[in-house]
Amino acid sequence: MAEEKIISKKKEKEINYRDLTTCDATIQMLEKAKRDGVETAFDRAVNMKACPIGADSACCKHCAMGPCRLNAKDPYGKVGVCGATIDTIMARNFARMVAAGSAAHTDHGMAMLDVFREVVQGHITDYKIKDVMKLEEVARSIGIETEDRSTEDIAMDLYKELERTYTQVDGEIPFAMRVPEKTLETWRKSGIVPRGAMREIMELMHRSHMGVDQDYNNITKQCSRTALADGWGGSMVATEISDILFGTPVPTVAEVNMGVLKENMVNIIVHGHEPNLFESMLSSVNEPTLIEASKQAGAKGINVVGMCCSGAEMLGRHGIPHAGNFMSTEAIIVTGAVDAMCVDVQCIKQGLVKVGECYNTPIYTTNPRCKIEGATHIELHENDPRACTDEVVIKAISRFKNRTHPVEIPNITNVGIHGFSHEYINYMLGGTFRASYTPLNDNIINGRIRGVAGVVGCTNPRVKQDYVHVELVKELIRNDVLVLQTGCSQISLAKAGLLTPEAAHLAGPGLSEVCETVGMPPVLGCGSCVDNSRILIAASAMVRAGGLGNSIADLPAVGAAPEWMSEKAICIGQYFVASGVFTVFGATFPIVQDTKFHKLLFEGLEQQGFGKWGFAVDPYEMAKMMIAHIDKKRKALGIDKARERVLLDMSDRRQMEAG
Prior knowledge:
This protein is an alpha/beta fold.
């Protein structure tokens, strides 16, 4: 394999992979990759120093007079060639991250809406409306009449309304109707209610161009408006339409980690973000003729597993095993057991192709928006998706039959419960006839639950994989904070065993009692990164249930992305901040401290009635900041002293209903 080695020997540093990840399966495969002479993102991160000027966002390259590099240690010592100050430069850079992140989720959501339209019109027949109840609930939430109407008519009206999320040039996006009244009032007062995602992204890109908007306060307003167009628009549409078409998740037991691969089976990994590919792949791997073909090739069958966010969605919808989060996507190929990795969009490392070449593992791109040099492109068309997924399965069977590398699969799997949609949480707390967030609010008011935290986001090779996620969440639940999870963070916590009811023993006495009574984990896995919209809906439901203020900003609730790495994460953070949530990021933050722009994001926005940003690298410091904020909100609500309340179980609620 000498001719295939891709690590440079010039300045290679000795690496102890246990310093880079807490995932034993990933460590095992990284050590194997090292023996095989194969490079991964972990190696590149160690051997490539991050640019300190870029990390502080003190560099402007938006025109050909630069790039202009300012000094983060003396931020007001000089300006760019055009005269742009450090605050303008940072605000522009931040804005373009928000715009790119919003575009990613918005494009995903619009693609889902396009599929929905074609299904409703009968042009796509492989997918159907699976959850009619969800369809009707979403329609009613934005004012569409559902009584005595056909499913098709309701669906077409819903499509027409939700299309405005993207194309509207004036007015308010449809899901603004879901926002708590006081929160919406704050948005309107500040002029940041999203009109349409296309307009907001376009305007933000324009305003961050050289020579246009040069007031960091004004740029930040458009950042908020664009981010909200994602959280309450593009992402929310993607989640709701996915549920309508493929089913609303319910709690499902499923395995995660690399041990889900099977040496005696054809292993196919689906990696990306849009559920269409995975849903069609499920049909293909269950096709009797393809199963028989795999057996004729010597396999016991076909084993399909997920990675990253589309995998997280399939955990909740179908209980499909999940092989690992973002930073493990290259390492799993090193097993030699992957017969095909099939990708669509977002968080796809270009390095996958090189690692795949070293182990004769083909990478298949399937979406016209994401092609990779050296990968094989088999495009998925939703009007005939099986043409793509069947071909991938056939090629994977051939690869299994002709495996050329020894197989080494880490014997590690972790079981967790996934699929806590807003709808199920509502039912779980209140029952069929009394579905409500009131029991949650009551237990926050009486002090059994201190508050709620959304811990979400990526993994980043600049920090120890999974470590900050796990330690932060352990500290939060130990202090009676209920945690909601999405994205790669959810897999980090599942590997640590925190997504099971048995993990309640790690929680504080109040949260533990609630978990044991309801029969739930102290950490609720809600899905993929676009499913952060489920957390927004849950927060709105808490406001409507009463007793915890009149806006999202009043709630004893916080957010965190401890190991973030993508522009999508910055956009997610900004839409949570604009919605009223204190949001803490780890790893790094692209702003110079002690500047006016930094003060605006970390203090000023809260003074305007929004949330605010926070930053910490250490998980315990992060937890301390988040808990302090929760306690501040509890004090403002007058519930800082716990009041003894009776915790009702399901039988108690049934008796109340019967009475």
